Description:
Layout: H1 3-19, H2 24-30, E1 33-39, E2 47-51, E3 56-60, E4 68-72, H3 74-81, H4 87-92, E5 96-100, H5 102-108, H6 112-129
Parallel strand pairs: 1-4
Antiparallel strand pairs: 1-2, 2-3, 4-5
Amino acid sequence: MNVKEWKTxxxxxxxxISSYPECQELFEGIGQVTFxxxxxxxxxxxxxxxxxxxxxxNTVGVIKNPxxxxxxxxxxxxxxxxxxxxxxxxxxxxxxxIEGNMAKLLKASGFIPYIKKAHLEITEAEAxxxxxxxxxxx
Length: 138
């Protein structure tokens, strides 16, 4: 997956999560907040995630002063999105680091199962159109 495909994927994740009725209460509970995802081995894949009271938006790049910064490799990030590993377990294993406002982070933890759900819907749709849709970096 190149950076352009990564941007498209991140946008699809945000659109799906924003469309799930069951996530609306989570959005209201978290309010406006921004999280940075710092990809250590592929910095060009780093992105920030903005929450409002009704939606999520993912943008490739770096933002100043996020509430929380998540730090990991691209593979760990992909595994978290795919539901292969839980970010809490990855943190305990030293594969994932977190800095910032832990209260905001805990409020966002309710989105974890919906990120996996969105990932599965996206990859299943891609698999139907392209049989070998996998995470790969160039």
